[in-house]
Amino acid sequence: MFALSVLRTREAPTTSKGAASANEAQPKGSSVCAAPHENPRRRRPDIAVTSPVPPDAGDPPGGRTLSDVHDEITKAAEETSAGPQPRPQSLMFALFGSYVLEEGLGHVYSGSIIDVLARAGVGEHAVRSTLTRMVNRGLLQRQRHGRRMYFGLTPQTAEILMDGKRRLWQTGAVNEEWDGTWTLLGFSLPESWQRQRHDLRSRLTWSGFGALYSGLWIAPGDIDASALVSELGLAAHVKIFHARADDATDIGLMIRDTWDLAGVGARYAEFEQRWSGWPGTGADDPLGVRLRVISEWLDTIRTDPRLPAGHLPPDWPARAAQETFHRIARQTDAPARQMAGELLETAPVQVP
Questions:
Q1: Which of 216, 244, 272 is the last residue of a domain?
Q2: How many whole angstroms separate alpha carbon 286 and alpha carbon 337?
Q3: This model's pTM is above 0.85
Q4: Tens digit of pLDDT for each residue in 98-151?
Q5: Are 135 and 96 in contact (CB under 8 A)?
Q6: Are residues 230 and 271 in the same domain?
Q7: How far apart are CA 113 and CA 70, in angstroms?
Q8: What does the pLDDT average to over 66-82?
Q9: 106-138 in b/e burial notation, b at 16+ Cβ within 10 A?
Q10: Residue ranges of region Disordered (predicted)?
Q11: In the chain, how many H helices and how many E strands?
């Protein structure tokens, strides 16, 4: 039994009609832009887009919500976790998150995306197919200039990649500063709302929650879950509490019953095994290495709830894996950034 003392209850705010409409707005899949900025340090010949997609083919009916985009990114992570070689879509997210979103670039020329991802082991056909698929799914938007096609982030994808950036660089994999507080979220949805239930569970998992009981989820720390609940339009069906466990509660047992510690630990151990020996193969290509290690690390931490360190095994593999990730990230940062600056050709975002 989980006995608790409630500190406070938070009602999830309802989303206004105007805000909901803004979240569901979908940029046009293709447009004509102003003259692109071609990197003066590297001028490459024009490459015609193979099998160009009709201008509006990528616009999903009714637009894409933030939850739709989050679901697509989660699917890419699940595919990546099946093996050591990241999927093209996960590498694409690493590229756009690191060198488009972070550098404030607009749209990136497809030919230069092909050049960059080739360094991470992705062939041209796979890159073109992935770009087309991501536009069709509302993950990227495109604009044409002459014979060239440029790709950029949709607002929804940019928001999720910003959250991923915080998880990568600001939130540690080991929770050493837990203050004993838990966030509990209870919900009751109509039986027919299977998609809404799936979306809520997916977002809760990304935010560190685990299912304590059916319809009652829990996460360590003081988590502001009201925003994600409101974005999903489920505020009327959710109650959020912040509490501390009673002394009668065996927190260690509760953690083992609620989360798959063995699975989370195995992913960290696999990451450490693959990367602890670097530099090795590919050490002479810091950009390709950096994209791969960021992609794999983000997929590794995606389902980690950051449980209190005091309730985890003393040899918890996240510590060593995190040290390895940060070491490689430091060593590849400057040379990879220089290479990306030389390779990526961009065009400004067209203002409607």
A1: 244
A2: 9
A3: no
A4: 998 877 778 999 999 999 999 999 999 999 999 999 999 999 999 998 889 999
A5: no
A6: no
A7: 22
A8: 50
A9: bbbbbbbbbbbbbbbebebebbbebbbbbbebb
A10: 1-67
A11: 12, 9
